[in-house]
Amino acid sequence: HGVFETMLYHKCALPLKNKHFSRMIADSAALGIVLPRSHLDKAEEAIHAQAREVGFKNGIVKIILTAGSGGRGYASPVTMSPKMIFSYHKLDEIWAIQRDKGLELWSCDHSLSYNPSLVGIKHLNRLDQILGASEANAKGYLDGLMFNSRGLLVETTCANIFLRTEKYGWLTPSIETAGINGVMRSLLIHEVFPRVNFPLKTFQIESDMLCEITELFVCNSARGIVPVRAIRGNKRDSTLVIGQETRTLQSKLSELYQCYK
To answer: What's residue 117's pLDDT?
Structure first.
């Protein structure tokens, strides 16, 4: 068991490292794994050293922290020896196209499990996301909307969600029952939305509210803000327009963090 972070590596630097590291420390503690900040600082040095060796300057760095090796059974060892693994990945060229042109989402039938003790934590047991992604991919879509067992919208298989309606303005789904507290989600809530003076609420979004959407985008720390131009599914089929306020949020994000240009 353990946690992971997927971080953007831009011009030989980790622009959002403090946000990622803080979440990793908190999430590890929730799983009973002690992770001092000094260990992450040493890992960062190793990440940069290996990146220089292979000429890696821009892309994705993934860090996996596990509780270490153990024997048979579920109990953690009395003396835990955490293990850290990191890997390097090229940027997906389609991400820049998606930020400009938007993407279509599949509305997944598979729902997210309810487990309040794990809500918000980016742990390694991502079976719901795997099943959701498999469902979306089988239908020909790169990502899909995911709901909890009560039918409330939570996130996509790999990103958080923000949407706008005429009645409520800008909303982001509540993650009290399921979902990941994304680094980009937090950044948008606390930095970007206030800078552009767009009121924002965390809300329990019923599935029937999707027909009232005027703007919708998904986000994560690797892709930034990606507009959504359509939602397809067995029970819904709607086309959306990429709105001006979404473009304003994209512009402000890239102004604050040039890695998302």
So the answer is: 87
Angle subtended by helix axes 17-30 and 37-54, to nearest 10? 130
- DSSP code per residue over 177-226: SS-B--HHHHHIIIIIHHHHT--EEEE-EEGGGGGGEEEEEEEETTTEEE
Give residue 236's pLDDT. 79
Query: Which residues, including other chains, have CB under 8 Å from residue 158's CB and lie 6 or more apart?
Result: 129, 133, 143, 220
Q: Do the beta carbons of residue 4 and residue 64 sit within 8 Å?
A: yes
Distance CA 178, CA 109 (A): 16
Q: C-alpha distances in angstroms, 130 versus 14, 55, 83, 140?
A: 27, 32, 24, 15
Q: Cβ-count burial of 131 within 10 angstroms (0-12 exposed, 13-18 middle, 19+ buried)?
A: middle
pLDDT in tens, 169-227: 999 999 888 889 899 999 999 999 999 999 999 989 998 888 899 999 999 999 999 99
Give CA 167 to chain center in angstroms.
27
Residue 234: its pLDDT value, please? 83
Tokens describing residue 96:
């820049």
Which segments of the chain have a pLDDT < 50? Answer: none
State residue 219's pLDDT score: 97
3-state DSSP call for residue 129?
Answer: helix
User: In this structure, is the dihedral angle defined by the CA atoms of residues 218, 224, 227 and 231, taken in order, positive or negative?
Assistant: negative
Residue 214 has which token pair? Answer: 């005027």
Question: Residue 53, class by beta-carbon neighbours within 10 Å (0-12 exposed, 13-18 middle, 19+ buried)?
Answer: exposed
**Cα–Cα distance measured from residue 86 to residue 129, given in angstroms and rounded to the nearest whole number:** 21
